[in-house]
Amino acid sequence: MPSLHARPARPAAHAKATPSSSDAAPLDAVPADAPAAASAVAASAAPTSTSTSSRRPANPQKHLVNVGPSRIDGQGAFAGEAIPARHKIGEIRGEFIDLPEARRRARLAERTTGRIFMVAISDKRAVDASASTDPLRHANHACEPNMVMKVQQGRVAFYAIRDIAEGEELTARYGTTHHAGRLRCACGSPRCVGWI
Fold first, then answer.
1. Which domain CATH number covers 150?
2. CA 187, CA 195: separation in Å to the nearest integer?
3. Domain that residue 70 falls in
4. 3-state SS string for 157-169
5. Closest among 65, 183, 188 to 114, alpha carbons compared
6. Tally of domains within the chain
7. To the nearest whole number, what is the mean pLDDT of the chain?
8. What angle do CA 56, 57, 59 make, to 5 degrees?
């Protein structure tokens, strides 16, 4: 059974097509008597690879984000450049797992490393970003955050709530967590609720 991402195979490069009268000429079909400039334009417009498997996915990180020591907790994510309000900053990617497995991994991580990089994306699934290299996985909780986390079509994305200065720590409100209000919040905001 083909995968959901399978594409039909392209015809071999040497196969001869029989275009109908309504078909446009392919980009690399330049008459032999055409000027050299036309041949160069056609060659530069032609695809360089026939394999779709060599294409890399688009980078979901839209702004430069650095990781460094945080005054809130452990490592944090920091704006590597000024970020305007309402701009997408980036995403967290990882392994899609069911919630019982996410809870099991969270308990194990809490006992071993103390660092949990998981986001529930529905009432049945979560993203485990433990092995991810996405810097936003280090975003700490704050009661007055400068980012909002949105789950859209199974993707975990972060958007700037307000203008964010270069070097500022990027924070988001975690919402309901496995801590269930038992972890003391260290965000330092005057409006801090005290617990996560």
1. 2.170.270.10
2. 10
3. 65-172
4. EEEECCCECCCCE
5. 183
6. 1
7. 77
8. 110
Task: Give the percent of the chain with pLDDT over 70.
Answer: 68
Q: What percent of the chain has pLDDT over 90?
A: 51
Determine how β-strand 88-92 pairs with β-strand 155-160: antiparallel
Q: What is the pLDDT of residues 144-189, one digit of tens each?
A: 999 999 998 889 999 999 999 999 999 999 876 666 667 789 999 9
Q: Looking up tokens 């071999």, which residue turns up? A: 12
Strand partners, 160: 147
Residue 165 has which token pair? 């200065």
Structure confidence at residue 11 as a pLDDT band (50, 70, 90): very low
3-state DSSP assignment of residue 136: helix
- Looking at the domain assignment, is residue 159 inside a domain? yes
Residues across the chain: 196
Give a yes or no: residue 9 inside a domain: no
Give CA–CA dist 46/60, Å, rounded.
Answer: 27
**Hey, what amino acid is at 94?**
G
| Host H or E run for residue 125 | strand 125-128
Name the helix (H) or strand (E) containing 99. Answer: helix 99-112
